[in-house]
Amino acid sequence: MNKQNASFIAKSTFIYTLAYLITGAIAYQLITKQFYVGDTPIFTAYLRSESNPAEWAHTNIWLVPGLLFRAVLISLVLLPFVDTFKRMTFLKRVGTLFALMFVLIHFAAAAPSPSNIEGLVYMKPELVSVKSFLLTQPEMIFQCLLFAVGLSWLLKKPVKEKVEVKQYVMP
């Protein structure tokens, strides 16, 4: 692997990790905490939660390694398209990366979740509701958007080399 590819993977991994942690922390406090703890914590039926400290200890140990592994995999999948992304305008790059991330990683993911299509199709009604489906969308929208903006900023268009024209003066 060349230095340029390794640099892209490292930077993309950092941007994804940052977007995930920032967005998740904010969304958890403002929106989704009610699904993990509280009166009707529907996510605890299938997810670990701080409401059970023994289970939560596992999450605390594996959150960062799992997140970094996922971020590296995402970076590796995006790597063949770097030159294509660089040729796009900034806004087109943001839109394309956002759409790829939101649709493929979240909304159309094959693993059921209360916030994606598979979850609406396969999950039991007591585990998914219109409320949980709608309230989990902002987190994913902002996470994907933050990643798309960060990576788009990183993937600036290559600077065209200026051709220097020399004038020769006849003696």
Helical residue percent band: 55-70%
Which series of helices and strands comes N to C? HHHHHH
- Put simply, the count of helices is 6
Number of strands: 0
What is the CA-CA span between the terminal residues? 53 Å
The computed structural class is mainly alpha
Q: How much strand content do the residues show?
A: under 5%
Average pLDDT for all residues: 90
The radius of gyration is 21 Å
What is the domain tally?
1
Based on CA inertia axes, which overall geometry fits?
elongated
Structure explained in plain terms:
This protein is mainly α. The protein has one domain. The protein is built from six helices and no strands. Helix 1 packs antiparallel against helix 2 and helix 1 packs antiparallel against helix 6 (130-154). The longest helix has 28 residues, at 3-30.
Give the helices and strands, then pairings.
Layout: H1 3-30, H2 53-78, H3 82-87, H4 90-107, H5 117-122, H6 130-154
Helix pairs in contact: 1-2, 1-6, 4-6
